[in-house]
Write a structure and sequence with these properties.
Layout lengths: L2 H8 L2 E4 L4 H5 L2 H8 L2 E4 L3 H9 L5 H9 L4 H26 L7 E4 L8 H15 L4 E6 L4 H10 L4 E6 L2 H20 L8 E6 L1 H7 L11 H17 L2 H8 L6 E5 L12 H5 L5 E5 L1 H8 L15 H10 L4 H37 L1
Parallel strand pairs: 1-2, 1-8, 3-4, 4-5, 5-6, 6-7, 7-8
Length: about 350
Amino acid sequence: MKATELLHNLGQSLWLDNITRDLLESGTLKRYIDELSVTGLTSNPTIFDQAIKGSAAYDVAIREDLAKGKSGEALFFDLALADITRAADLFRPINDRTNGVDGWVSLEVSPLLAYDTASTLAAAKDLFARAQRPNLFIKIPGTKEGLPAIEEAIFAGVPINVTLLFSREQYVAAAEAFLRGIERRIEAGLNPRVGSVASLFVSRWDAAVASKVPETLRNQLGIAIAQRTYKAARMLLTSPRWQRVYNAGAHPQRLLWASTGTKDPSASDILYVKALAAPFTVNTMPEATLKALADHGELASILPADGGNCEEVLGQFAKAGFNVDALAAQLQEEGAKSFVKSWNDLMAVIASKSDALKKAS
């Protein structure tokens, strides 16, 4: 049995952290669903940048949009929605079968809006309405300005993937924003079943400290932070406040492990996947990591609900001079900036492709 199937049977959802038109056209995504237990998909500006830059598969659609006078961001979201809705349709049977627990795809609002609550909310509502797919998550960063938009989007019935979370504290703030939105729906007499995941970025922790960390602590910080966050999630999900909304028909927000591709070439290619095997969570992984996992026939032990020895490990990092709270804030800020850079690169690719196609026609 493939390790992908073992992980799925454990109760963790495997999502692909990639989308391209070639993946859809070639049937590769369908094969991942059928053969590698993939039950969802995430996207981001970097993924679309690489997809559009490296393929001619989008040229016809770009020409059609140019003929309609579209350009830039408007043209991009046409391309992205076409891919995302096709992927959503592939995962729709899983979404139906699991009553909305699994089978989701994710599309991000413009990262230029990360610190603009009102515009983020408006963009989330617009993208969800345009897609017309019940199994679409709109990605909103869990920044201070993003949290009110998350609450309002959930209250409006828009499923949300909270992205750019790096610590237990950032996760708890995002979870509470989701819960407030659900509680408001219940008070208003609305159906409280609005899907959500909270995405904790893992490998970026180890990449951030790689040049400074003692060899004995190498590649341990991201996992320890994830373990600490998992403990908090388990406590939240069993708290009386959350149980009240379950009793009213709400689905719990699931914790999602993001950035789980191994950055250190000397470490195992499934380092984070093995360490973070846990039921009722999601692991969204790059294609290379998914394929590497499929080649393995076994997994490590299940992630303990109490976080295991995470506080001991984090204590060692503190002794070594690392302030994880300050680093979490720094990583979130840097993450937002990197998404903006990727977005600007993507807009440049759209402009370049558009110019080339205009000249060729």
